[in-house]
Design brief:
By secondary structure, the protein is α+β, with helices and mostly antiparallel strands. Helices cover about 25% and strands about 30% of the residues.
């Protein structure tokens, strides 16, 4: 008998009902998701984030702002033990592209270290 893997409360999947609303029927609004990552070890998250950026092959647009596929992300704040990012996407593929970025972030950084604390926050859709 297989024992199912416990669900990681730090995992997040982009919810269709957040993006596909009556107020966004034409799928023109931007969906933005803030993620806060925290780790007790100084510099650990910054190292993991830099490795993730290299592996992801994201395009650097400006200081602390990147494009990847049909979405983008920006470093809002960082310290020795924390990083706050905003991930965003708009258009027909907003749900899929944003969720792909979220799953990549989860599988490459969050999943492998249970000491990483994570907080996801959906922001209101913006025109």
């Amino acid at each position: 008998m297989n024992n199912p893997q416990p669900i990681d409360p730090r995992h997040y999947s982009v919810r269709p009902e957040w993006i596909w609303t009556k107020d966004n029927e034409n799928l023109t609004k931007t969906a933005s998701l803030v993620v806060n990552l925290k780790h007790h070890k100084i510099g650990y998250l910054q190292q993991q984030f830099e490795q993730w950026l290299q592996k992801l092959s994201a395009t650097k647009l400006k200081t602390a702002e990147y494009a990847y596929g049909g979405c983008g992300f920006k470093i809002l704040a960082q310290s020795d033990t924390e990083i706050q990012l905003i991930l965003f996407s708009a258009g027909q593929d907003a749900l899929e592209s944003l969720d792909e970025l979220v799953q990549n972030l989860y599988s490459e950084i969050i999943l492998h270290d249970p000491a990483i604390e994570v907080l996801w926050k959906e922001l209101p859709l913006q025109s």
